[in-house]
Design a protein that fits this description.
alpha/beta; Arc Repressor Mutant, subunit A; 3 domains; four-stranded mixed beta sheet; three-stranded antiparallel beta sheet; about 15% strand; HTH_ArsR_DNA-bd_dom; Metal_resp_trans_reg; transcription; transcription regulation
Length: about 290
């Protein structure tokens, strides 16, 4: 049974993040071991076809060789630093041969990037849920619901998936990072530029590949299908760029529709660093729940 011991400064420095680089490497593992990832079956079928393409197979060979031999270095998946990380920012922190970075980039573009808006929305929804839980119930309750194998004992986090001799954060804090392709929890050691990170499976993974009309016909008739779809996609915090990618609308159209929805009190907005995130208000959420 492994454990991580926390000090006072570690507990107050809990934060959340996501890692497109980590998801890319984990997704490659999932494509090679589909039996452990039945929840992603529809994506795996497409990924398996990509693995059979000669050109992509050649470009991803350095990554494939490491994954198949179980020799992926920890340095290839450094702990994420913020919720808005971009894969190129993360690749810039990875030491090693350029050909490995090129292999990761090739797999990202072919297998992950086309689906990233949906993945990111799921991860953002998980972070929003955990953040509310942290504010309402405290960190002990957050840890209690991250994964069935995790439990909080006194000043330490205990799990069979944690290393037996895992060093504590030692005042640096801990990053909690939901993931799409994880099947259990994993601890990433701090690398000097970021504190340690605890990876855990995100909530509601079974909904990721569902295809459904997010806005009912009644709501679409009331406000127009484009606005109804935008409102549905703001169930988790989303930027105009993300909403455009999910709906197929232009950035200009998304901005105009969001202005109308915001003036009607159906969405709220808040700025985080350089991005503005839109979220359905209580009234907007009530409309989405209505039959």
């Amino acid at each position: 049974m492994g454990m991580v011991r926390f000090g006072v400064h570690d507990v107050v420095n809990i934060r959340f993040a996501m890692s497109p680089l980590g998801e890319t490497v984990a997704s490659f593992r999932a494509a090679l071991d589909p039996g452990r990832h039945a929840v992603h079956l529809s994506w795996i079928k497409k990924a398996s076809a990509l693995l059979g393409e000669r050109g992509l197979a050649q470009r991803t060979a350095p990554l494939g060789d490491l994954v198949r031999r179980g020799l992926v270095p920890d340095s290839l998946t450094p702990p994420p630093r913020c919720p808005l990380s971009e894969i190129e920012e993360e690749l810039a922190r990875v030491p090693g041969p350029a050909e490995l970075g090129d292999a990761v980039r090739a797999w990202w573009r072919a297998a992950v990037e086309p689906h990233w808006p949906g993945m990111r929305a799921l991860l953002e929804a998980d972070i929003a849920h955990r953040t509310r839980q942290l504010a309402e119930d405290g960190i002990q309750e957050v840890f209690a619901h991250l994964h069935p194998t995790l439990r909080w004992e006194g000043d330490r986090l205990v799990s069979p998936h944690l290393p037996l001799s895992a060093p504590g954060p030692e005042g640096a804090g801990l990053t909690l990072a939901p993931t799409v392709f994880a099947v259990d929890c994993r601890l990433l050691a701090g690398d000097g530029t970021a504190p340690p990170a605890l990876l855990y499976p995100a909530r509601a993974l079974g909904t990721l590949w569902e295809r459904r009309d997010l806005a009912g016909d009644g709501l679409a008739r009331l406000m127009g299908r484009s606005r109804a779809q935008l409102l549905a996609h703001t169930s988790s915090p989303s930027t105009t760029t993300q909403l455009a990618a999910r709906t197929g609308l232009s950035l200009g159209a998304v901005s105009q529709h969001l202005a109308v929805l915001r003036d009607a009190g159906l969405v709220t907005s808040h700025r985080y660093r350089r991005e503005v995130h839109y979220t359905a208000s209580d009234l907007g959420a009530a409309l989405l729940r209505s039959p």
